[in-house]
Amino acid sequence: MVLIDVSNVARTLDGMKLTYRKHTFNFNIPGGTSRGMLHTKNSWILSLKDDDSDFIAIAECSIIEGLSPEFTEEGKYVQELDKLINQLKDTSLSFFIDKDSLVPKFSKNGLEFLLEWVRFPSIKFGLECALLSLFHKSNALIFDNEFSQGKSTIQVNGLVWMGDVSFMQKQIEEKLEQGYSTIKLKVGAIELSSELKIIEGLRKQLSSDKLAIRVDANGAFSRENVRGSLHELAQLEVHSIEQPIAVGQIDLLRELCHENILPIALDEELISCYSYAEKQTLLQTVKPQFIVLKPSLHGGIVGTQEWIQLAENNGIDWWLTSALEGNIGLLAIAQLAAEYDLKLPQGLGTGSLFSNNFPSLLVLENGYVKQVL
Ligand SMILES: [Mg+2]
């Protein structure tokens, strides 16, 4: 955790006024996921200003029903947002400029305030984004870096949604035409044999040095069939598999990571780890090959940064992924990713999912995302 040199406070936000409104996104094509077909999904849009200026920061609290740990029902979620409004009225939060990176960091009182919201990662993420935008007095700037200045790009994977074989095949063709060199497929939804046929067809067209194939099982395999499934996927030179088994089976997960039939990426498994110690224990016990980080689910910005630091300390690679955020949240995740020296394609290409999305500052070109000014 970063300690503050109080002589170095860059800006203090006082008298903060927060408001929120619900936004229901409509899917262009109903999104097939392991939790069934999604037709709509909700986010709460925060507007935050402080006494110091008329600028209003806009940020997004994005939830996925059935997955976001803090979301049980709308009424309770809104009560938490109301609680946050009241807390912010009486709080002043300061930032300081880190002398090595020149990045604004939350000061000690800011980090302590955010820590109180650690079990509400979507709200914490929205709040962190709003505070950083307020600091920069720009909704185009959550992190000020080469990416947000339009000078660099981020490589991303193309996401193929679940559906029948012809629907998946059609999406794959589109992704290849669009120039992606990494695609991500959901597996474990239809018959594995059909999914393997799709991957096999893909491998016949493009070898693993031309096209990386990531798969995500969202916990679909059982103790009985997981090893066989991993062997079949490994034969097709799949890059990695997200969450092959359902959460909470730590011993089996550790064995699978150790056996490394196919490199394993943890995703849902990370959701219930809130403290630094819990994160450290999970990574050191399971020793996964990768972790997949979603700020709206995995501890907001500060929590994600903590995961990255721990992953790197333990020799584990990682990538960031959006979790059905609209364009407001997506921009923040892309700018957060750009704070790091990225080794792997990120999972950021979901901006065109909704028919009533917000205007986007991100464009996708040949498998790379860029911020336009
Ligand atoms: Mg996943």
Structural class: alpha/beta
CATH top level of the largest domain is Alpha Beta
Helix content: 25-40%
How many H/I helical runs?
Answer: 10
Low-confidence stretches: none
The biggest beta sheet, please?
7 strands, parallel
- The CATH topology assignment of the largest domain is TIM Barrel
Distance between the termini: 33 Å
Which radius of gyration do the C-alpha atoms yield?
Answer: 20 Å
Note the overall shape: globular
Bound molecule kinds, no repeats = magnesium ion
**Secondary-structure element order, as H and E?**
EEEEHEEHHEEHEHEHEHEHEHEHEE
Q: How many domains would you count in the coordinates? A: 2
Total beta strands: 16
Q: Identify the CATH homologous superfamily of the largest domain.
A: Enolase-like C-terminal domain
What does this molecule look like?
By secondary structure, this protein is an alpha/beta fold. It folds into two domains: 6-136, Enolase-like, domain 1 (2-Layer Sandwich); 153-371, Alpha-Beta Barrel (TIM Barrel), CATH 3.20.20.120. The protein is 33% helix and 24% strand. It has a seven-stranded parallel β-sheet with strand order 8-9-10-11-12-13-14. α3 (121-136) packs across α9. The longest helix has 16 residues, at 74-89. It is globular. The two termini are 33 Å apart. The model has no long low-confidence stretch (mean pLDDT 92). The site of magnesium ion has 6 residues, from loops.
